[in-house]
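Q: Given only this backbone (138 positions), what sequence would you predict?
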């Protein structure tokens, strides 16, 4: 009976190790960014270059927000822009109150990309974060 117990223990340990390895790689391609009290709860996300990343944007606030990610030029154009809703560009998403949206982006270049809500007053309040894109294997 003891050899069977030993085999079952070993099998369980292998299964747990495999699950841990799998969830680690899943986190690299799936990122959740929660919004609460008009702030992004996740400030910095690190992702690999050249891999599709699915962002789940979870708005727990009773008001609408937006998630715009890009370089300084993208953000400057949105600070003065007049687009009321974002729905067609994966890096520009409107998240209605108390809802969740998903978008998938592949970053081709390493670097840091800011994500900001450009609704009036939200950026000044601190509704900003960043994605750090690293070369594969970094």
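A: Predicted residues:
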């Amino acid at each position: 009976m003891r050899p069977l117990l030993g085999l079952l223990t070993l099998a369980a340990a292998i299964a747990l190790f495999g699950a841990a390895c799998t969830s680690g790689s899943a986190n690299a391609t799936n990122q959740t960014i929660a919004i609460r009290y008009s702030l992004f709860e996740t400030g910095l996300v690190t992702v690999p270059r050249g891999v599709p990343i699915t962002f789940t944007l979870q708005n727990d606030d009773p008001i609408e927000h937006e998630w715009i990610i890009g370089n300084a030029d993208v953000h400057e154009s949105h600070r003065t822009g007049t687009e009321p809703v974002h729905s067609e560009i994966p890096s520009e998403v409107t998240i209605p109150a108390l809802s969740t949206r998903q978008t998938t982006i592949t970053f081709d270049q390493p670097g840091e990309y800011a994500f900001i809500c450009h609704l009036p007053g939200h950026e000044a309040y601190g509704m900003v974060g960043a994605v750090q894109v690293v070369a594969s294997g970094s």
